[in-house]
Design a protein that fits this description.
Helix content: 40-55%
Shape: globular
Distance between the termini: 16 Å
Order of helices and strands: HHEHHEEHEEHH
């Protein structure tokens, strides 16, 4: 392996370890604000949901974790919506990013491109809780980059597939789907152009190390 490739690989690992997810959330917020969204990071929301819906969410998550059922976001949301009577309880949900536009609230759980099972399970539990509170709310499980390719169908990390249908669930946004949702059509391509320009400058710095 050449000195350039070694340095580039080391630089990439160092950047990812040092900065983590914070810069992605910050970039996401700037993109969303430019598209006209009201936006907050790490938003805490207190929700009031029916006890029956909360119990059903726990049954769904347990069955998914134990591979006793296959994930299906639409069917799961419809299932918890049926519990609309009885006692209520308060739950707290923390969203990596919260957006609002035209009277609609959007709740985003933003994960690394290869999330583990616990992260995925906790995200879905929160998302279902948000939907149990108000069916008009939009909740999304987001991966800001697709390591498998350009299309959602290319995603190939299997672990989160126990909890979400990663290729079909409309609540799953991967790569370009994520960026275009928060920033409008062509946002992903525009960001690639910006990153390519910055990357060219960084590459020169790496080669001169």
């Amino acid at each position: 392996m050449t000195k350039t490739l070694v340095n580039a690989s080391s630089f990439e690992r160092s950047f990812s370890t040092s900065f983590g997810q914070g810069p992605i959330e910050q970039i996401s917020m700037l993109v969303a604000q430019d598209y006209g969204f009201e936006c907050h990071r790490q938003r805490t929301t207190l929700v009031n949901i029916f006890k029956g819906a909360d119990d059903e969410i726990h049954r769904i998550m347990s069955a998914l974790r134990d591979s006793e059922r296959k994930p299906n976001w639409k069917a799961e949301v419809e299932k918890i919506a049926a519990f609309n009577k009885g006692d209520t309880i308060v739950r707290r949900v923390i969203s990596d990013m919260w957006l609002s536009k035209d009277g609609i609230e959007y709740f985003f759980s933003i994960k690394t491109v290869k999330p583990n099972l616990d992260q995925t399970e906790n995200a879905k539990r929160d998302m279902l809780t948000i939907k149990a509170h108000d069916q008009r709310h939009q909740a999304f499980f987001c991966l800001y980059y697709n390591p498998g390719g350009e299309q959602k169908s290319d995603y190939n990390w299997t672990i989160p597939s126990k909890i979400f249908d990663m290729k079909r669930d409309e609540c799953v946004l991967i790569g370009q789907d994520y960026w275009n949702t928060i920033g409008g059509p062509n946002t992903y391509l525009e960001l690639l152009e910006i990153f390519a320009e910055v990357g060219s400058e960084t590459r020169l710095m790496i080669e001169n190390m």
